Description:
By secondary structure, the protein is α+β, with helices and mostly antiparallel strands. It has 13 helices and 23 strands. The strands form 6 sheets. Strands 15-14-20-19-18-16-17 form a 7-stranded mixed β-sheet, covered by helices on one side. Strands 2-1-5-3-4 form a 5-stranded mixed β-sheet, sandwiched between helices. The radius of gyration is 28 Å and the shape is elongated. The structure holds iron/sulfur cluster (SF4) (2 copies) and FE2/S2 (inorganic) cluster.
Amino acid sequence: MSEPSNNVTLTIDGKAVTVAKGTNVLEAAKSLGIDISAFCYHPGLSIAACCRQCLVSVEKNPKLQPSCQQTVAEGMVVHTTDKQSTLARKQQLEFTLVNHPIDCPICDKAGECTLQKLYFDHDNANSRVDTPKVHKDKVVDIGPHIVLDQERCILCTRCIRTCDEVAHSHQLDMANRGDHEVLTTAPGEQLDNPYSLNTVDVCPVGALTAKDFRFTMRAWELDATPSICNGCATGCNIEIHHRNERAWRLVPRLNAEVNKYWMCDEGRFTYHELHEQRLAGPTLDGLPATWERALKAAGDRLGAIKDTGAIAVVLSATASNEDNFALAKLALAWKASVYVGAKPPVPSRADDILRDADVNPNSAGVAAIAAALSITPKTTTELETNLGTGAIRALVVLGHDLPLAETARGRLKELDALIVIATHERGPAELASIALPMAAWAERAGTITNRQGKVQRMHGAFPGPGQAVPGWEAVARLANATGQKLSWTAAREVFKDMTAAVPAWKELAWTRDVRPFALRFAGSRG
Ligand code: SF4
Ligand code: SF4
Ligand code: FES
């Protein structure tokens, strides 16, 4: 007997399509390139079928069906452009607009609003309503990060389902009936959970806006570059929305295996740090210097140390795979001892949704690289001890996250050379005899490895400040200043050598650089 098929073949607008059993008609149509208008449907949420914007005709069914709720069946024949369903969707859109304020010129969702897009795509007619609109509350402060405009809300319930199903917190609800129905907070609640800003993404209109982003940039002024959140070991896939060489917001990007459609609020705010307290140029003994002077001094000071065992390097769980691979190779060439710097774990933030206690984005990458190069990194406690005994005379640190006890920190100032390759003027970079500026995660191409061992690609959205260069390039310049040859000219060359060296990464290929794309008329991110 033949196995029952898990696929179903149906016809939509005269075209046959085969999809998995259980798929809804809306998604089946999407796979044919047919875009059925919808508000309340979101592929990452349960189906409410409450907006009726996605009605289609199904042959042998006397009534129009919501295509988001209607699952496919063998031999089903669907029409999305027939007179009946086209009229129903147009009328539904007009109904949704009856009490909607004409806020587009001042609304933060303009340019990426589903309601605005559908109006232009399907209606584009003047309002036939000659009675005053029903007004509801505006600028309602419903939580620490979000503002609600009740009269813009089209009552789709996506935000309620996002709280219930993603954050597992019932914090939003509907109140009242008919044209007085409003979105509001659940009794005794605020919209305050670690995933609250996902409601802003899924809101198809400008009813929920992020305090952090509202009134800063219009959507069509922004470019988007795909990247990976560097906020913790989960490595949520994101888009950096940027303009004028700075980031204005981070939003999640679909990766079914890592973060699905979501990211945490804390991760979204990490872009602020990209533009604060940056190290923009090399320094030598606390004063600005050219790259040439700083590197010459580094070469001289390291060259003066005759006992190679007195040189130590610190890899970084916050830097990219390529940056760490470059420094690990240099440590081998120098025969230097190796340590790893990392932010301390934050157990209170861990949950079984996305957030990890390890707030370093690349702990797994550093471990894989060290193991592949037969390096056993020593702990920071051992670093503190060896600084105390004077066994270390020169330290080369990648990144600024090196939490040390106060005494050990004091010892850093007594070293013959403290060379720090860092993005920010923080931690050891403040004490460095030589500081070399490094581009941050959003400013250069590279990869990081998440807690699942997935090596994920980041793309440069905008250049780093001043004279900052990628970490691997700073390491290569430092190597050359000490007579070692590291001759990479692009991140993909470091990646190629690195994947050849790490057995688990042998099959990985460097993906093409992505140019930022304009968000203009991109439609709703929901
Ligand atoms: S606030 Fe937005 S997401 Fe929530 S119900 Fe209203 S329109 Fe839908
Ligand atoms: S869970 Fe971690 S990786 Fe994901 S958005 Fe939050 S901080 Fe970033
Ligand atoms: S999208 Fe199908 S009913 Fe709302």
